[in-house]
């Protein structure tokens, strides 16, 4: 099917998009990661560039080939491996951004003491306990520090369904303080690695201001429609 023709309604806007999953090192050869492919975030960046925005795309770990798809005019790609690196890169980029979209799957916890050498069975024995500490919430920080006129958007991947999903989404929108939260229902099959997606959007009043399903590019365009509407209402 032909993609709907979208207006160049993001012309003149500078946007920051994060994509992929962070990897938190345990030792020189191991990490804690997640199943984010980066496809949705890259689709959000591509949709923005196609609509005229100047895009800073910050990639954490993405699946093979996903990053290459983003090398198009209008998108400047940079890389951040860990949550700490992503915090620095995103804070820098956000300083000049009109819109920030955090589509990256940020590890909630990291290993506070990364081992200098490989953790061995000989040293660890029958069981191994890893201590984890919480990472800073990048999105909540961006929302708290945002300038007048800047729009901060989060993503939430949830395994809840029905009313519980909507309630959780409202609470998360509130806790993060974002202008818009894009909510993605995920399970073992749906969402993270799939190329089709369904999203709904919760605004600052807690209202659901859009629902979309389709390819990650189609849902990305629907997200930008919702962002444009939220900015117009400010
Ligand atoms: N996020 C972030 N920094 C973190 C964790 C999450 O910026 N340390 C961002 C994600 O990029 C996403 C949003 O917050 O845009 C929601 O992430 P999610 O994992 O759904 O929320 P959490 O607050 O981590 O809550 P939980 O995982 O416990 O549901
Ligand atoms: Ca999380």
Task: Summarize the model shown.
The chain is of the alpha/beta class. It has helices spanning 39-50, 83-94, 121-124, 138-144, 162-176, 216-233; strands at residues 14-19, 24-27, 30-32, 54-59, 75-79, 99-102, 109-110, 133-134, 151-158, 180-185, 196-203, 208-215. 29% of the residues lie in helices and 26% in strands.
Taking the sheet with the most strands, its summary is:
8 strands, mixed
- Unreliable segments (pLDDT under 50, ≥5 consecutive)? none
- Overall 3D form: globular
Query: Could you tell me the radius of gyration in angstroms?
Result: 18 Å
What is the tally of beta strands? 12
Gap from first CA to last CA: 35 Å
Strand numbers in spatial order across the main sheet = 5-4-1-6-9-10-11-12
Estimate the mean pLDDT confidence: 94
Task: Name the beta content range.
Answer: 25-35%
Q: Element order, helices and strands?
A: EEEHEEHEEHEHEHEEEH
Helicity, in percent? 25-40%
Alpha-beta classification? alpha/beta
> Which small-molecule species are bound to the chains here?
cytidine-5'-triphosphate, calcium ion
Number of helices, where a helix is a run of at least 4 consecutive DSSP H or I residues:
6
Describe, in plain words, how this protein is organized in 3D:
GO terms for molecular function: FMN binding; metal ion binding; phosphopantothenate--cysteine ligase activity; phosphopantothenoylcysteine decarboxylase activity. Its EC number is 4.1.1.36, 6.3.2.5. With 234 residues, the protein is α/β, with parallel strands linked by helices. The protein has an 8-stranded mixed beta sheet with strand order 5-4-1-6-9-10-11-12, with helices on both faces. Helix 1 crosses helix 6. The chain is globular. Cytidine-5'-triphosphate (CTP) binds next to helix 4 and strand 9.
